[in-house]
Design goal:
This protein has helices at 14-24, 33-46, 57-67, 85-91, 111-124, 143-153, 206-216, 252-263, 265-282, 313-325, 341-344, 354-362, 374-388, and strands at residues 50-54, 75-79, 96-100, 130-132, 156-160, 168-169, 172-173, 182-186, 199-203, 220-221, 240-241, 289-290, 297-298, 304-307, 363-366. α6 links the parallel β4 (130-132) and β5. The protein is globular, with a radius of gyration of 22 Å. The chain starts with 13 loop residues before the first helix and ends with a helix. α9 (265-282) runs parallel beside α13. The chain is an alpha/beta fold. The strands form four sheets. The protein has a seven-stranded mixed β-sheet, sandwiched between helices. The protein has two domains: 14-263, Type I PLP-dependent aspartate aminotransferase-like (Major domain) (Aspartate Aminotransferase, domain 2), CATH 3.40.640.10; 265-388, Alpha-Beta Complex (Aspartate Aminotransferase, domain 1). The mean pLDDT is 97.
Length: 389
């Protein structure tokens, strides 16, 4: 049987299974000490003051928006090149959403276009309340420049670092929230580390941290100092719902998997770096373009985006079919958010997203995960070169 090579997949070790088994045989399978330990390990790893885990990055983005008091009529901007959650979190809060075009050097939001858009919005009195930069494929955005714009135009920043745990920017780990208010990670099945499904929010602001903890659990508090009806604090069973939210708690079962995976994060990123280096070597004489990484950037290499000048989307589709017939499965990450039917009705002008359109036409994700071998890469690159020629 010919081996199938997926674009991504999880890697689960015996240590991971043992970690989860211990929780299954313990007193708490949810809302216990392992979740808190996972939060502390993340916080220590990225060097933030606070961390709260959730059941998904989507939940984390929504809670982050709520913690920043996003409401109807407010405006949020995010990258046009991302998964829908980066925009959905704002719309679910009743806010208006708009998009920023990307640059073609690292596929993150264009700082130049962001600055132009802010100047125009300032003149019109329609500045965003929140900007959500997306660290695409694990390559960090230029957060120092975005932070300078934040100070000038007075917006809040939520880093969508769903791809980027383990990445760093100018010696700051993504998640340190050095240049933002909040940072969101994803631990979905095929992310750099996984909890099955899960996410987290890191911050250095205690008020945001307390609000996020409240919103993670129905808006309910058991902390006496937060009670609105103080006299009821006498009752040992008493708790209060003081805000409106859902249950976004990450069970200890999932946190145990995350804890085990986090311990191996650095060594696994080194493995990904070696895979990227080998891909680069094998494709060096082809017309495929891979990302370049400056010295001040360290990527998690969650994805390996590649660019080729396809004649059209149909040409790209034919390439995908050719590769899948050879049991090599690529991916398109992402369809620009404004192209989805839900957002299309909002009538965004695609002429404002020239680079995003170019990226969508020409980019694809090569297989990138810890079970890829050099032999696999030899086969992948050979088939790519066959098709190109």
């Amino acid at each position: 049987m010919i081996k199938k090579i997926p674009y991504s997949r999880q890697t689960i070790s015996k240590d991971d299974i043992s970690s989860v088994s211990k929780v299954l045989n313990s007193t708490f399978i949810s809302r216990g000490p392992i979740n808190e330990e996972f939060e502390n390990r993340i916080r220590n790893y990225v060097k933030s003051k606070f961390c709260v885990t959730t059941n998904s990055a989507t939940s984390s983005l929504f809670i982050a928006c709520k913690a920043l008091n996003l409401k109807k009529g407010d405006i949020v901007w995010t990258s046009a090149n991302s998964f829908a959650s980066s925009a959905n979190c704002a719309v679910l809060c009743g806010a208006k959403i708009d998009f920023i075009d990307i640059n073609l050097e690292n596929y993150n939001i264009s700082i130049e276009k962001l600055e132009q858009k802010l100047k125009l919005a300032s003149k019109k009195g329609k500045l965003p309340k929140i900007i959500i930069p997306v660290h695409y494929a694990g390559f960090p955005c230029d957060m120092e420049k975005i932070f300078k714009l934040k100070k000038k135009y007075k917006f809040k920043i939520i880093e969508d670092a769903s791809h980027a745990i383990g990445s760093s920017y100018k010696n700051f780990k993504v998640g340190s929230s050095k240049h933002s208010d909040l940072t969101v990670f994803s631990f979905q099945a095929v992310k750099v580390i996984t909890t099955g499904e899960g996410g987290s929010i890191t911050t250095n602001n205690k008020n945001f941290y307390e609000k996020i903890k409240l919103l993670r659990q129905h808006g309910i508090t058991k902390d006496k100092k937060n009670f609105k009806i103080k006299k009821n604090s006498f009752y040992p069973w008493y708790y209060e719902q003081i805000d409106l939210s859902f249950n976004f708690i990450l069970p200890d079962i999932n946190a145990a998997l995350g804890l085990s995976q986090l311990r191996k994060l650095n060594q696994n990123i080194k493995k990904r770096e070696k895979l990227v280096k080998y891909y680069r070597q094998k494709l060096s004489k082809s017309k495929i373009k891979l990302l370049d990484f400056p010295k001040h950037i360290k990527s998690s290499h969650h994805l390996l985006p590649a660019m080729y000048n396809f004649k059209s989307l149909k040409d790209k589709a034919n390439f995908f079919r050719f590769m899948s017939k050879n049991n090599i499965f690529l991916q398109v990450l992402y369809i620009p958010i404004y192209k989805h039917p839900f957002y299309k009705k909002m009538k965004f002008d695609e002429k404002n997203f020239v680079n995003t359109e170019t990226f969508y036409k020409n980019a694809f994700s090569l297989p990138m995960h810890l079970q890829i071998t050099k032999k696999d890469i030899d086969i992948i690159c050979s088939k790519i070169n066959n098709w190109i020629q």
